[in-house]
């Protein structure tokens, strides 16, 4: 069984962590993130490190131990460096462009899809077929990338659609004569 929770969370310079009760907040150059931890864990801060310990020997406390530690680690990385998900668009005539506070997608439908960019998320299109979703909150970045991909997921025959940059599409063979 993994013991991720045993390792402390290193707090780099430029990041401030505040722990009040179960509320953990991280402040850095990319913004402020907050997280309400459960009562099953104890969070202590000392010497530029954050330690998480289970409050009791219950099953839920042991389960939440590593989860809370990972959430705090993601907050620290998010406010200091940020997270990025890269998407690629494959298909003839498929393209994306950022217009104001919306991402305009042309994905082979009879209409364009306008995806409103949520607060705290930055979307860039270096090329018409490449989308970079970035932000401080790892969960929010992943959710936005998944919603964009969901408009036209890649199909297995030609690979047309929106896919993650590191995603491998298993191709199927077409029909034979």
Automatic annotation (TrEMBL):
<dbReference type="GO" id="GO:0022625">
    <property type="term" value="C:cytosolic large ribosomal subunit"/>
</dbReference>
<protein>
    <recommendedName>
        <fullName>Large ribosomal subunit protein uL6</fullName>
    </recommendedName>
</protein>
<dbReference type="InterPro" id="IPR019906">
    <property type="entry name" value="Ribosomal_uL6_bac-type"/>
</dbReference>
<dbReference type="GO" id="GO:0002181">
    <property type="term" value="P:cytoplasmic translation"/>
</dbReference>
<comment type="function">
    <text>This protein binds to the 23S rRNA, and is important in its secondary structure. It is located near the subunit interface in the base of the L7/L12 stalk, and near the tRNA binding site of the peptidyltransferase center.</text>
</comment>
<dbReference type="Pfam" id="PF00347">
    <property type="entry name" value="Ribosomal_L6"/>
</dbReference>
<dbReference type="InterPro" id="IPR000702">
    <property type="entry name" value="Ribosomal_uL6-like"/>
</dbReference>
<comment type="similarity">
    <text>Belongs to the universal ribosomal protein uL6 family.</text>
</comment>
<dbReference type="GO" id="GO:0003735">
    <property type="term" value="F:structural constituent of ribosome"/>
</dbReference>
<keyword id="KW-0694">RNA-binding</keyword>
<dbReference type="InterPro" id="IPR002358">
    <property type="entry name" value="Ribosomal_uL6_CS"/>
</dbReference>
<dbReference type="GO" id="GO:0019843">
    <property type="term" value="F:rRNA binding"/>
</dbReference>
<feature type="domain" description="Large ribosomal subunit protein uL6 alpha-beta">
    <location>
        <begin position="11"/>
        <end position="82"/>
    </location>
</feature>
<feature type="domain" description="Large ribosomal subunit protein uL6 alpha-beta">
    <location>
        <begin position="91"/>
        <end position="164"/>
    </location>
</feature>
<keyword id="KW-0699">rRNA-binding</keyword>
<keyword id="KW-0687">Ribonucleoprotein</keyword>
<dbReference type="InterPro" id="IPR036789">
    <property type="entry name" value="Ribosomal_uL6-like_a/b-dom_sf"/>
</dbReference>
<keyword id="KW-0689">Ribosomal protein</keyword>
<dbReference type="InterPro" id="IPR020040">
    <property type="entry name" value="Ribosomal_uL6_a/b-dom"/>
</dbReference>
<comment type="subunit">
    <text>Part of the 50S ribosomal subunit.</text>
</comment>
